[in-house]
UniProtKB/TrEMBL annotation:
It comes from Clostridium algifaecis. Residues 151-221 form the Phosphoribosyltransferase domain. Belongs to the ComF/GntX family. Pfam families: Pribosyltran. This is Competence protein ComFC. InterPro entries: ComF/GntX_DNA_util-trans, PRTase-like, PRTase_dom.
Length: 228
């Protein structure tokens, strides 16, 4: 009997995986037929603007800066992919985004000992069911063969950033993150992964928390960069 239940669960798992990873005959954005093994068609891909710039995210007096790279700009199909990943749990979208991020790692020759990601509060995690940054980090782990280590917690719920001024956005995020797993990051080079870079406040405070707790070099990599 018990064996039967285990078999049923295995079958269920296989069914779910086959739905998620089944043949991708149609573009996940426009539903056009695909003629390659990619998830999006050439037409949708054309509107993705690759981001080749490095952004320096620093504090107000400029004494501390972190380098930030992004796969593409937050516009066109990349914006659609991010929205689909975050709000519709489209894991295929996550794979396309991660491909652009990995291209940025290669193009900019980014070097790091391990990958971490911008955390969510427990409440937000429960509501969404997954952390999109963690999801992207785990795909990049497969590509780079570098481990993913969870070393930050989000301890403060933050207001929606929409409608806030730049200064308010920075104030809103300040003190939201707390470091964990200190022994694992001492003197290590860390790649922090997130979905979108907007003001840079989130990435900055995550990086600052790691820096203050002994990490060596910290680089930030996001799927997209907003032009705001
Ligand atoms: Zn398409």
């Amino acid at each position: 009997m018990e064996y039967g239940i285990i078999e049923s669960l295995k079958n269920l798992k296989d069914c779910i995986l086959s739905v998620i990873y089944s043949g991708n005959e149609n573009c996940i954005l426009c539903n056009n037929e695909l003629y390659s093994d990619k998830y999006i068609c050439d037409y949708c891909m054309k509107s993705i603007m690759i981001c080749r710039d490095k952004t320096e995210i620093g504090n107000v007096n400029g004494t501390l800066k972190f380098d930030c790279y992004s796969g593409a700009y937050y516009s066109g199909s990349m914006m659609e992919l991010i929205v689909k990943l975050k709000y519709k749990s489209s894991f295929r979208s996550g794979h396309v985004i991660a491909d652009y991020m990995y291209n940025s790692i290669k193009a900019n020759k980014l070097e790091f000992d391990f990958i971490t990601y911008v955390p969510m509060t427990k409440k937000d995690f429960k509501r969404r069911g997954f952390n999109q940054g963690e999801y992207l980090a785990n795909i990049l782990k497969e590509y780079t063969k570098k481990p993913v280590i969870s070393c930050l917690s989000k301890i403060k719920s933050t207001k929606d950033q929409i409608g806030l001024s730049k200064r308010e956005r920075w104030e809103n995020i300040k003190g939201s993150f707390r470091f964990k797993n200190i022994s694992l990051i001492k003197n290590k080079n860390v790649l922090i992964v997130d979905d979108v870079l907007t003001t840079g406040a989130t990435a900055f405070y995550c990086a600052l928390e790691l820096k203050n707790n002994g990490a060596n070099k910290i680089t930030i990599l996001t799927g997209a960069k907003s032009r705001v």
